[in-house]
Design brief:
Number of domains: 1
Number of helices: 14
Helix content: 55-70%
Strand content: 5-15%
Number of strands: 10
């Protein structure tokens, strides 16, 4: 079903276009995940404040809401850059398949505007609406943020499993936009991405308060600021690992070349081992710990199942093996490290009704935000680089979709400078929000949380 007739672009311009798109997506996805997860955690804090009467929850919610406003603004900028890049860098994709995948992008735009409107209401009306209406004004932010992520990821899922159209004489016919949007990859991929957003937001928010507590700020306000988002992330983590297994099984059934790259399987074999670590050298995966029959069991539920190796595919259709394999290993490692942190919290809470008191727990939480981001980026690399050399799997090559005009390298340089400025500005503003205390200082009340840290 491969589409022909489009010019092939190779060399520095193709590399620059791919790198620029990778930079833009990798930057935006972090801000987008915070935009999906933070509103729900913020509303949870506000709701807890109303229900318990504890002013510290409301102070946390107010501070987090201001950070949400900043992140939404920079996310709008990076999202706008991405929308231009889709047309400017990849006219072979949008020009040919725009009518197939245009629907989710349109719906995402509607969700974005709903989120923007209600975020403005939520931020402006803190002291102007009664508590319950103000809390309810934040609900559309959560729903629109999740919907926005869902719609965008359905478009990417379609690129993994293209459906909803037919071709005749090199032309697209019989377009079914809803079938394209709800393609076979949509359920596992959207679920995996939305849960990842809550993990990133929860661990990142908790890590900020863990660092503050390691520096001596161990009042109840900071302890609640750590515990609330950490609890959300800890609850989501085991669910996410289960969904990750679902997504991996989907890849095994529908993208065997990607699975072979993920695991470094070069030869087709029955009862394939699961590889831990390793690096591909000269057509072999070296220095890996092998778990006998583990891959066949995990991928197909049968320890004797056949795993298709890269040798069954022309080498021109292989993805970059080491990039995909090492990214997959990093994602799995970070995911299970975060699961251990969640188990540590759960065991302590079930035994003593309080989180662990060890300073090592705070250190682990302090790095959990970075670990969650690494897992997120590594997973996205597996998804996108593992699909190469196809931009639309099995249908359109990346080299056919890229803009054939010369000079794309300079566009990459310019966009890199833009993201450098955005990063510096975002970090500066968020640090000012933390230092300038945009909400009243939390009162020094008795410790009623039961969170005793030594």
């Amino acid at each position: 079903m491969e589409l022909s007739g489009l010019p092939l672009v190779t060399g520095p311009d193709l590399v620059a276009a791919r790198t620029q798109m990778g930079l833009s997506l990798g930057w935006h996805i972090i801000v987008a995940c915070l935009g999906v997860g933070m509103p729900a955690i913020t509303l949870l804090a506000e709701w807890r404040g109303h229900r318990t009467g504890d002013v510290r929850y409301r102070l946390l919610a107010r501070r987090w809401a201001k950070a949400m406003g900043v992140l939404f603004a920079v996310g709008a900028v990076s999202g706008t850059i991405l929308s231009f890049e889709m047309g400017l860098l990849w006219p072979g994709l949008m020009g040919v398949y725009g009518e197939v995948i245009g629907l989710p992008f349109s719906l995402e735009g509607i969700a974005f505007f709903i989120e923007a409107i209600f975020l403005g209401i939520y931020l402006y009306s803190w002291d102007r609406l009664p508590p319950v209406p103000h809390l309810l004004s934040g609900v559309p932010i959560v729903l629109a943020g999740v919907a926005s992520a869902f719609f965008v990821v359905t478009a990417n899922a379609w690129m993994q499993q293209p459906t909803g159209f037919d071709t005749r004489n090199g032309r697209i016919i019989a377009v079914a936009p809803w079938a394209a949007m709800f393609n076979p990859a949509t359920p596992p991929q959207t679920t995996h991405m939305i849960l990842a957003a809550f993990m990133v937001a929860g661990f990142a928010m908790a890590s900020v308060y863990a660092v503050a507590m390691l520096r001596g700020r161990r009042d109840a306000y900071h302890r609640l600021g750590l515990l609330l988002p950490l609890t959300v992330a800890a609850i989501v983590t085991p669910v996410q690992i289960g969904v990750g297994d679902w997504a991996a099984r989907f890849v095994a059934e529908n993208q065997p070349v990607k699975l072979a790259a993920m695991e470094g399987v070069f030869e087709t074999q029955r009862g394939a081992p699961l590889h831990v670590g390793g690096i591909a050298i000269d057509g072999q995966l070296r220095y890996a710990l092998k778990i006998p029959r583990g891959l066949s069991l995990l991928a197909h539920g049968d320890p004797d199942a056949v795993i298709v190796g890269l040798n069954q595919t022309p080498k021109a259709d292989w993805p970059p093996i080491n990039i995909v394999h090492l990214a997959f290993q990093a994602m799995v490692a970070m995911g299970f490290a975060l699961l251990l942190l969640a188990v540590w919290l759960a065991v302590s809470w079930l035994r003593r009704r309080e989180p662990p008191s060890s300073p090592w727990f705070l250190r682990a939480v302090a790095v959990s935000g970075l670990a969650a981001v690494i897992a997120l980026e590594a997973g996205w690399i597996v998804t996108e680089v593992g699909r190469q050399p196809w931009i639309v799997y099995g249908v359109l090559r990346t080299s056919q979709a890229v803009n054939p005009a010369p000079g794309l390298v300079w566009g990459f340089v310019l966009v890199t400078l833009v993201y450098l400025v955005l990063t510096v500005a975002t970090v500066y503003v968020l640090r000012r929000l933390a230092r300038d205390q945009p909400v009243p200082i939390a009162p020094q009340e008795p410790d009623v949380t039961g969170f005793k840290v030594t």
